[in-house]
UniProtKB/TrEMBL annotation:
InterPro entries in UniProt: CobQ/CobB/MinD/ParA_Nub-bd_dom, DNA_Partitioning_ATPase, P-loop_NTPase
SUPFAM superfamilies assigned to the protein according to its UniProt record, in alphabetical order: P-loop containing nucleoside triphosphate hydrolases
Descriptive protein name: AAA family ATPase
Domain annotation CobQ/CobB/MinD/ParA nucleotide binding: ranges: 4-189
Secretion signal span: none
Superkingdom per UniProt: Bacteria
Lineage: Bacteria, Pseudomonadati, Bacteroidota, Cytophagia, Cytophagales
Length: 221
């Protein structure tokens, strides 16, 4: 399967989710390719830190690919991997459109803040355009990331996401937790923090991935 993160708003958590999803799939013995399709190179930086922390054993293959060519390149590489995860930047770029054309599944994290919710209208227009140009429909999932710890505070945003026609709302909020940046700072994920593990983070993100991955293998702890 080919998964891509997407969305128009910067800092919504695309890279964090792409990195965690890649590691989660690789821990289930899948051969995974992570494509950094963002000029900022966040997934590449993460992987460079990871190489240092894990003595080169990152557990997946990383490539940097940007621009319209991404679509063709992904088509030629897809038979070589069990799964491909593409991380895109937070703007309507050629790379993001190419990724949305070639992917089976789009993963769209949204922060429960009013500006982030407002920009969704423009993104759903892009999704409509992409869908009309595709031979097979793209499955798009959206969910709250960096959500407030108290579920009640997220309700309005959750309702706004649930009301969108273009995406399936996954009611599995990823909360705003230090565990995510703390792990990322050394190229790790919340699954790999040993004694410093945050069980709530592990549980919520595992639940999300089970629901969006179309992969029926539970994570091994
Ligand atoms: N659930 C979370 N809880 C706390 N911090 C988070 C969470 N998700 C992401 N972050 C932090 O928020 C910041 C932005 O996240 P990230 O880089 O994943 O977003 P992005 O959408 O890829 O941003 P960009 O627009 O730069 O590509 C990072 O510092 C990341 O560690
Ligand atoms: Mg990013």
């Amino acid at each position: 399967m080919i998964f891509t993160t997407a969305g128009e708003k910067g800092g919504s958590g695309r890279s964090t989710i792409a990195e965690h999803f890649t590691v989660w799939l690789s821990k289930q013995d899948f051969d995974v390719l992570l494509i950094d399709a963002d000029e900022q190179g966040t997934a590449s930086d993460f992987t460079a830190w990871r190489e240092q922390t894990l003595d080169g054993n990152v557990g997946y293959t990383l490539v940097q690919l940007v621009g319209a060519n991404l679509r063709k390149q992904v088509e030629t590489m897809k038979s070589k991997y069990d799964h491909i995860v593409i991380d895109t930047g937070g703007r309507d770029t050629t790379s993001q459109r190419a990724a949305l054309f070639v992917a089976d599944v789009a993963i769209v994290p949204v922060q429960p803040r009013s500006h982030d919710i407002w920009t969704l209208a423009k993104f759903t227009e892009i999704l409509d355009e992409i869908q009309s140009g595709r031979a097979t429909p793209l499955t798009a999932y959206t969910f709250l990331n960096r959500a407030d710890i108290t579920s009640l505070d997220n309700r309005e945003s959750a309702e706004a996401l649930a009301g969108l026609e273009q995406m399936t709302f996954v009611d599995c909020a990823i909360k705003n937790r230090k565990a995510y940046p703390n792990a990322g700072a050394s190229g790790l994920t919340v699954f790999e923090m040993g004694e410093k593990s945050d069980a709530k983070a592990i549980n919520e993100i595992t639940e999300l991935f089970k629901r969006i991955s179309h992969v029926n293998i539970p994570i091994t702890a």
